[in-house]
Design brief:
Structural class: alpha+beta
Shape: elongated
Largest sheet: 7 strands, antiparallel
Helix content: 40-55%
Order of helices and strands: HHEEHEEEEEEEHHEHHHHHHEH
Length: about 400
C-alpha cells in the first residue's frame, strides 16, 4: 500500500505501522532499490480495463451483512467521558472544608521534592500536583508514582509538611535512581474530592473551556455527546464497509495485470524506504532489525497489495456500472480537507498531489480522483446494503464491570 492511500478513504484503512522515518540515499550491492526492481511507467498512468479484469462481479445491491458492536451512546458513557476529559482542562478536584487532615480517598494538592543522599535530584520535584492518595496517582497527568510515594501523606494536615521514604525498583528507568532509597518531602496545600457531575458547575466549565466557547455544563454535555455519537457513527460505517468489502471479495473474481502489480509494488517500496530507512540503514538492515527478511517483507506487501487492488478494481467497476463520477466541487472540498489534515507534507493543493503521486503531482491528481470514485462506489453499496447489528456482549460486560 502506498503512503498516499491512508485512512481518509474509508476503503483504504488497512494501513501498516512502521518504524522510524528517514530518507534512504545509500544502497548496498546486495540491496535492490525500488528503481532497480521496476523502471516502467507509474500505476496512475496505466489504462486498466476494469470490465476485463473483474471477470466476475458479485451482486452488490441489497447485500445482507451483519456487524457486531455497540453504537448507541448512553448517558453513562457521556458522563464518564466528561469526567475523564476534565483533568486535561485543569478541573481536577473540588476543595473540601469539612476536614483538614488527609485521609484515604482524598485528593491532595501538593508540592514535592525528592532527595537522594540529602541532595535534591533532577526531575524529582513538582508543584501544584493534584494527587489521588489512595491510588498513588497524579490526577492531572494520569500517571502512577513509585510504590510508597503516598505513604507519608495520610494523616498530614493542610498547610503542613510530610515525607515518605521510597526505594526505587532495581530495574527503574533512571540508572541513577535504580535500587536507591530516596526521601520525598511534601507541602500540603489543600484537600480535594474528585469532581462528579453533581459537583461540576457552570463556572468551572466556563473557565476551563473558554477557547471552545462552552460556557455551561449542559453545553459541555451536548458537545461530548455529539463527539461520541459521531465516533460511534464512524465506527458503524467502517464496520459496514469492512463487511461489504469482504463480501464482494469473496463473491467476485479479479485478475491483476503483472505490470500493474509490479508498478504498485515498486511505488510502495519507494515510499517504505523513504519512511523507514535512513542514510546508514538499507532495507536489508531494516528487515534484519525487525527479525525478518526482505523477501518476507515483500511477500507481506504483495498479499496486502493484492487485496487492496482487488477492492479498487471491484468498486471501480461498480462505479462504471452505476455512472458514479467525480463531483468537481465535492472533490475540491476533499482536497482542501487534506490540506488541513495536520500532515506537514500536505499543506497546499500541489503538495497533496505530490504526496499521493509519490513525488509526481500529475500522478497524484489522477490517483486521488480514482480513489475518490472508488470511495463513492463503496458508499453507494453500503447505503444500499441491509445491515444487521448484533450487540457486542463482551464489550457490554466489560463496560458494566
Amino acid at each position: 500500500m502506498k503512503k498516499r492511500v491512508i485512512a481518509l478513504l474509508l476503503c483504504m484503512t488497512t494501513a501498516l505501522s512502521f518504524g522510524a522515518c528517514g530518507n534512504n540515499n545509500k544502497q548496498t550491492d546486495t540491496q535492490e532499490s525500488a528503481s532497480e526492481v521496476f523502471d516502467g511507467k507509474s500505476s496512475a498512468n496505466m489504462d486498466i480495463n476494469l470490465e476485463k479484469q473483474v471477470t466476475k462481479l458479485g451482486d452488490y445491491k441489497g447485500i445482507d451483512v451483519t456487524i457486531q458492536g455497540n453504537y448507541d451512546v448512553t448517558d453513562k458513557q457521556v458522563e464518564e467521558s466528561i469526567l475523564s476529559l476534565l483533568p486535561y482542562y485543569g478541573i481536577t478536584g473540588v476543595e473540601v472544608k469539612d476536614h483538614d487532615t488527609v485521609k484515604e480517598g482524598d485528593y491532595v494538592k501538593i508540592d514535592y521534592t525528592g532527595y537522594l543522599d540529602g541532595e535534591a535530584f533532577d526531575n524529582g520535584s513538582a508543584e501544584d500536583v493534584m494527587f489521588d492518595v489512595s491510588n498513588n496517582y497524579d490526577v492531572t497527568n494520569k500517571s502512577n508514582y513509585v510504590d510508597g510515594f503516598a505513604d507519608g501523606l495520610i494523616g498530614a494536615k493542610v498547610g503542613g509538611e510530610a515525607s515518605s521514604d521510597v526505594t526505587f525498583p532495581e530495574d527503574y528507568q533512571s540508572a541513577d535512581l535504580a535500587g536507591k532509597q530516596v526521601t520525598f518531602k511534601f507541602k500540603i496545600k489543600g484537600i480535594y474530592a474528585p469532581v462528579t457531575m453533581d459537583t461540576l458547575t457552570d463556572d468551572m466549565v466556563a473557565n476551563a473551556f473558554s477557547e471552545q466557547k462552552i460556557t455551561t455544563k449542559k453545553d459541555l454535555t451536548a458537545y461530548v455527546r455529539d463527539v461520541l455519537e459521531n465516533q460511534a457513527k464512524n465506527s458503524k460505517t467502517q464496520a459496514s464497509i469492512t463487511e461489504v468489502e469482504d463480501y464482494l471479495l469473496a463473491n467476485s473474481e479479479v485478475k491483476i495485470p503483472d505490470d500493474y502489480m509490479a508498478a504498485r509494488m515498486a511505488e510502495y517500496q519507494k515510499e517504505f524506504e523513504k519512511d523507514n530507512c535512513n542514510d546508514t540503514q538499507t532495507l536489508e538492515d531494516y528487515a534484519a532489525n525487525s527479525n525478518t527478511t526482505v523477501k518476507d517483507l515483500k511477500a507481506s506487501w504483495k498479499e496486502m497489495m493484492e487485496k487492496q487492488i482487488k477492492i479498487e478494481f471491484i468498486f471501480g467497476r461498480i462505479a462504471e456500472l452505476e455512472g458514479i463520477k467525480v463531483d468537481e466541487d465535492d472533490f475540491k472540498k476533499f482536497v482542501e480537507y487534506l490540506t488541513n489534515s495536520g500532515n506537514s507534507e500536505m499543506t497546499t493543493e500541489d503538495q497533496v498531489y505530490e504526496y499521493y503521486g509519490v513525488g509526481n503531482k500529475e500522478d497524484g491528481k489522477k490517483t486521488l480522483r480514482q480513489l475518490y470514485v472508488v470511495n463513492k462506489a463503496i458508499s453507494f453499496v453500503v447505503e444500499n446494503a441491509n445491515i444487521t447489528v448484533e450487540p457486542d456482549t463482551e464489550t457490554e460486560e466489560t463496560t458494566e464491570q
